[in-house]
Amino acid sequence: MSESDINFLTKWECVMSITINVSDDNKAATMKINGRFDFSMHNEFRKAYKDVSLSGGQYIVDLSATEYLDSSALGMLLLLKEHAESQDCGVTLTGYGDEIKEILTIASFDKIFTLS
Amino acid sequence: MSQTSDKEKIILVVDDDQTNRLVLSSLLKESGYKAIIAVNGEEAVKIVDENHVDIILLDVMMPVMDGYQAARIIKSRQTYFIPIIFLTAMTDEAALAKCIDSGGDDFLTKPFNHTLLNAKIDSMLRIAGLYKSIAEQNIEIKNKNFQVEQEMIVTKKLFEKIINNDLRGDKTGLHYSMSPMSIFNGDLILAEKNQTSGFDVLIADFTGHGLSAAIGALPVSDVFHSMTNKCFSFNDILVEANLKLTELLPTHMFMAAGLISVDRSNNVLSVVNAGLPDMYLYRNGEILHTFKSRNIPLGISKLSASQFEVEMQTLEYGDRLIAATDGIMEANNAAGEMFGLERLLKVFEDNVDAEALFETILSSCSEFREGAEQTDDITLLEVCHLENIEYKTNVAFQNEHREPSNWSIQFSLDIKSLRQFDVLPYIMQAVNQLQPLGSGRTSVHTLLAEMFSNALDHGVLKLDSSMKNTPQGFMEFYQEKQKRLESMEEGHIQVSLHHELDANKGGRFTLHLMDSGEGYDFRNVDTHKNKYSGRGLKLVSSLATDMKVLGKGNAVMAYYDWDNK
Fold first, then answer.
1. Which of B65, B307, B406, B455 has the fewest Cβ atoms nearer than 10 Å?
2. Do B402 and B373 fall within a single domain?
3. Which residues of B touch A82 (CB under 8 A)?
4. CB contact under 8 A, B300 and A112
5. Same domain as B185, residue B130
6. Per-residue confidence (pLDDT) for residue B348, from 0 to 100
7. Lowest-pLDDT range, B23-37, B43-57, B400-414?
8. Is residue B486 part of a domain?
């Protein structure tokens, strides 16, 4: 397969399902996760926040368009938390429906994240 | 693709016409290929069988065997991709389609254009090169896969030996079923006898599946078995396992777990649910209590003992605790639906025979799945509280060859020592080191544990054991115990252990515990109804060869005779 073929395939896999918006004062970054939040999102999720550096404040994960969330997604949220804490920031999870709330509750994530 | 021109490519020219053969051969040589020739289909087949050929230029109409038949035979026997380009004077569509149909990869109509022929050969060689590298990669992947699988099988055997201590059976009341989705299981069940002759069980589910998920099981198993054996308390085991996992696991990995302890001296079930689905206590055909997850999974952040939320319930014989990892609830059928909570609760509701509950849950889940591919590890656990429990004898105990001896040890513990650490496991260990106890080991452990907690709870901390009569009270009792232990300024316990050999058989243990408490008027307690205030001492009196309450009721002496036969 030629170089260009391979590039095409990689690009094709990265249909954007995570968006990130950083506020003007650089104190809030909002990540919106569309569709299924599972292991397949791993790279994209990391890529989304990896170069973001806030000056204090909150990372907000908007789960309103998230259909499903599994245990590897919980793991990714822990990675985000680690990233946020290194910048003295918190992580807020927001917009989730009942099913996702149930998963977050079973994992007692209310004890380590801000849920709103 | 440059790789195709590394070596001189061999092109087989098959034509019954000599002029055609000569023209083609010289043309190919000019372009840098090596040409070999066959005069009909049969000869072509023979050459291909015996030699490596990169491309075949095949005429259609030939005596002996025509091009169509030769192409079919060659393609059916090829072990690598050999492109066939038909060279034909025919131009009707049906004939050309027949070329492709019989196995040809392309065709060129005579009289052919030289540039076009060269272009077609180049194109075919490129495709053959791609086929070749894919085939090589496939072989490599197959070999690697085989190797990895073999290594996994060996590792799995080792792994199971380390982890496994199977207490399962109808005589212990412990049942579980595990079906991993790959060779290694990301789910884990550990069980170990505790000092009350009941057992502690850990059911766990690591993030992910397979080897990377299973590897965390080793440190957990190590902590769990060694600490339960040494009589560390429930909370201490959790703190230690959590600490190890937090240090060891990468940030995104954790272990959802349930720790279940059956206290047979008090008939109490303690449960810590850290990230697992609901667990159920089942009695007389219905769910009596649901243990919800109240803790974050292990391996995320370091926690102290008091940060774990423990739930307790008093047990009756025949009670069953059912626990599962999320694999049951999230089991998919072919339509992508999940088994789910509703179906699970329906199984509980419809169940008539308590004995069959466990199997019914499993079979309902597998009927629902109807053979759909498993997407997660599935684990189900049942702990039944039996009136009489019987363990298989543990081989480890019989392998100790130390000679029994005469010895005495004494510990004096002030309130600070009592507050700062759980001393009991260390005393137990000292006893184990000094004395090969054989089957009496558990009894001595239980005697010591019960006498010690009696001295601490009622003597030093002045807790009222009647609090423990209700499940609610049981929780309060332990919360109060923690509070008093932290705030109490005075108090001490003295533990004396003495062992004396018997000339003919094993020997006699003497356990003496004295506390700083006020004691109680043991001489005037109604001997029939409530001889000893707590259930603990009742157990001591039944296990010990003999026991006495001494002093003002703040000291207890127990004897235990053991036999080495």
1. B406
2. no
3. 251
4. yes
5. no
6. 92
7. B400-414
8. yes
Q: Tell me which of B349, B384, B419 is where a domain ends.
A: B384
Cα(B190)–Cα(B498) distance, integer angstroms = 34
Quick check: A79 and B251 CB within 8 A?
A: yes
CB B218 within 8 A of CB B228: no
Pair B186, B332 in one domain: yes
CB contact under 8 A, A75 and B251: yes
Q: Is B168 found in the same domain as B276?
A: yes
Report whether B322 contacts B279 (CB < 8 A): yes
Residue A31 has pLDDT above 60, yes or no: yes
Please check the confidence at residue B399 and state whether its pLDDT lies above 80. no
Q: Identify the closest residue of chain A to B274 by CA–CA distance.
A: A107
Domain-by-domain residue ranges, chain A?
16-115
Please name which of B88, B89, B111, B86 lies closest in space to residue B100, comparing C-alpha atoms: B86
Least confident of A34-48, A79-93, B355-369, B385-399: B385-399
Q: Across the interface, which of A79, A106, A112 has its CB nearest the CB of B293? A: A106
pLDDT tens across B504-555, in order?
777 888 999 999 988 877 766 544 444 455 567 777 888 888 988 888 889 9
pLDDT at residue B167 is higher than 90: no
Tell me the two tokens of residue B140.
């490599």
- Cβ–Cβ below 8 Å for B207 and A108: no
Of the partner residues A72, A79, A107, the one whose CB lies closest to the CB of residue B208: A72
Nearby residues of B231 by Cβ (< 8 Å), 6 or more positions away: B194, B195, B424, B425, B428, B445, B449
Range of the domain at B307: 164-384
Structure tokens at B381: 């656990």
- If interface means Cβ-Cβ distance under 8 Å, which residues of chain B face chain A? 130, 205, 207-208, 251-254, 256, 274-277, 292-297, 300-301, 326
Distance CA A99, CA A37 (A): 13
Q: Please name the residues in contact with B307: beta carbons below 8 A apart, sequence gap of 6 or more.
A: none
Residue B37 sits in a domain whose CATH number is 3.40.50.2300
For residue B496, give the CATH number of its domain.
3.30.565.10
**Residue B220: helix, strand or coil by DSSP?**
helix
Residue B204 and residue B314 in one domain:
yes
Q: Which of B207, B276, B277 sits opposite A75 (nearest CB)?
A: B207
* Structural fold of domain A16-115: Transcription Regulator spoIIAA (3.30.750)
Asked if B296's CB is within 8 angstroms of A112's CB, the reply is yes
